[in-house]
Amino acid sequence: MSVQHYLKMIDNVSVAQRCHAAAALAHIYLHSDLDADERRSTEAVLTLLLDDPSPKVRLALADVFSTSAHAPMHIVAALARDQIEIATYVLARSVLLSDTDLVDCVAGGSGDAQKVIAARARVSFAVSAAIIEIGETVAVMELLANTQAQIAAVSFRRLIERFGHVADIRAFLVDDERLPADCRHALAMCIAEALCRMDIVTALMGERRAARVTHEACVRASISLVAATPTEEYPALVEHLQLRGDLTTAFVIRVVAGGKIDFFGAILVALSGYSLVRVRGLLIDGGTVALRALFNAAGLPEGTHQPLRVALQSWRGIATGKLVMGQQEIIRRMIEQVTPDSAATVPAAANDDLLSLLRRIHQEAIRESARDHALAIAAA
């Protein structure tokens, strides 16, 4: 049929016939060897079909054009902004939609349209950022379920800021291996705060005790997170802890007592202004005077210097094979270095007396060791 014939029949046939004609004309445009005038005329008729009162006609166009890289861009763009049943075809499959087009569709579309975009086979960093910044909850959940989606660290941070209170999104994030360490820490804090606010928890424990237990659990979770964090992510995690106010003296003591010396080095780099190479060298073989200067530059209270040096020397000996001891013995050595006077020099930010803090860490280490031993016996 000629293009003129299509134009004549459009206004005088049923919806089903117009759908068939639209699909046929779209196939002709894509697969027939048309000259310039015929192509221009065909494209004009296809454009006219965008105004058809029946969504079924536009759906027929979307079905054909959504899988082609040679479809008319203005028609694809229009279909992408049509009602969701039609737009889904194009938003989910069309390779013609650029990141800019998709971001515009996220900004102007419904939650359903955002969800379709989030499920695309390829979702760029820019599109993910747009969904996280302005998308609805269903779209963000779809994005997290899409393991092929590219999500930048800064977008994960913004995601937790916007949706950290949503339990379903927290559940997705817990198992997401793409989550940076600082975001994982922020997620842990969100989970802890949510648990603390639960009516059953406050009823059983009371608000004050629930808050204290939650805080202690958060600190232990932070220490455990350090062990699972790649070295290259240490600076970001340290900065995150600083911004939250969690990089306290008590936290530093726990880090060293637990043998996280590389992370301790990252903390010292951030607090002292020394280079990583210099800090690393001092931690490996620095003497008393050099370590004191480093700790002073980092702003660590003087009363903590001797316990930290003793722990550091012990971990050095273990690393070189000169000493054989466990965490409990190292913490006991740290306790022996603390006098009432030195404990009093620790600032209130540590939220605890240094000696009682070390004793509590020692008790936790004993309990953890006993727990591991019991599990080993049960597994034997």
Q: How can the largest sheet be summarized?
A: none
How many β-strand stretches? 0
Q: What is the typical, i.e. mean, pLDDT?
A: 86
Low-confidence stretches: 346-352
Range of strand content: under 5%
Order of helices and strands: HHHHHHHHHHHHHHHHHHHHHHHH
Number of helices: 24
* Shape call: elongated
Rg for CA atoms: 31 Å
Structural class: mainly alpha
Distance between the termini: 80 Å
- Helix content range of the residues, please? over 70%
Molecular structure report:
It contains 24 helices and no strands. With 380 residues, it is mainly alpha-helical. The longest helix has 26 residues, at 354-379.
Offer a concise description of the structure.
The chain is mainly alpha-helical. It has helices at about 5-10, 15-30, 35-50, 55-65, 75-80, 85-95, 100-110, 110-120, 125-135, 135-145, 155-165, 165-175, 180-195, 200-205, 205-225, 235-245, 250-255, 260-270, 275-285, 290-295, 305-320, 325-335, 340-345, 355-380.
Features:
24 helices; 73% helix; elongated
Give the topology, please.
Elements: H1 3-10, H2 15-31, H3 36-49, H4 55-65, H5 73-80, H6 84-93, H7 99-108, H8 111-118, H9 125-134, H10 137-145, H11 153-163, H12 167-174, H13 181-197, H14 199-205, H15 207-227, H16 234-244, H17 249-257, H18 261-272, H19 276-285, H20 288-297, H21 305-320, H22 327-336, H23 340-344, H24 354-379
Helix pairs in contact: 2-3, 2-4, 4-6, 5-6, 6-8, 7-8, 7-9, 8-10, 9-11, 10-12, 11-13, 12-13, 13-15, 13-16, 14-15, 16-18, 17-24, 18-19, 21-22, 22-24
